[in-house]
Prior knowledge:
The structure holds two protein chains of two kinds. Helices cover 0% and strands 49% of the residues of chain A. Chain A is built from no helices and eleven strands. Helix content of chain B is 0%, strand content 53%. Chain B has strands at residues 3-6, 10-14, 19-21, 23-26, 31-38, 44-50, 56-58, 64-68, 73-78, 87-95, 107-108, 112-117. Chains A and B meet through β4, β5 and β9 of A and β5, β6, β10 and β11 of B.
Amino acid sequence: NAGVTQTPKFQVLKTGQSMTLQCAQDMNHEYMSWYRQDPGMGLRLIHYSVGAGITDQGEVPNGYNVSRSTTEDFPLRLLSAAPSQTSVYFCASRTDSHSGNTIYFGEGSWLTVV
Amino acid sequence: AQSVTQLDSQVPVFEEAPVELRCNYSSSVSVYLFWYVQYPNQGLQLLLKYLSGSTLVKGINGFEAEFNKSQTSFHLRKPSVHISDTAEYFCAVSDLNAGGTSYGKLTFGQGTILTVHP
Lengths: 114, 118
């Protein structure tokens, strides 16, 4: 049972480069989301999805794009990386439920933009 | 909109001492409440959650938290800490959208670094 898998775990980018952080879950969860973690600021929601083909912006969406072509995958794209996007990124998922089921997090992706 | 405030950014304690990590939230709707722990260079692990019912919630590793609706607080406690409890702890809330479901969008506090000294 892999849970939520993020790749890569570590990445260094130059300013202006593009890249995609991959996120996959094998739990058939409808809801997936991306957070970034910065010191002293906790985790902040970037984008989220309530199902395949449906995405919406979170608290800090600027500079990031997402798509949800399948239930399993929810990639996060940086089109033109900036030093302000240096952060740790977490993907999360949970099932459709009225009981507030546990949100599962990936192991994180450490991104440095130089 | 909702917000979460963790009142202490760092909490140093000695091993076997009790600890309380404080969390206050604000929201105009009913919420679910969570505590997560993050060990260095790792992801987040759920410690406990409050959805409804008893206001005292027990979690893993001997932690518990009490939901106080009137004070909008959800403080985390452990009666006797171990060196291995050294980590960063996050309080989070998730609101209930119309119909009583939650889309899994969490609002996090800033985090509290718990350091347990021998």
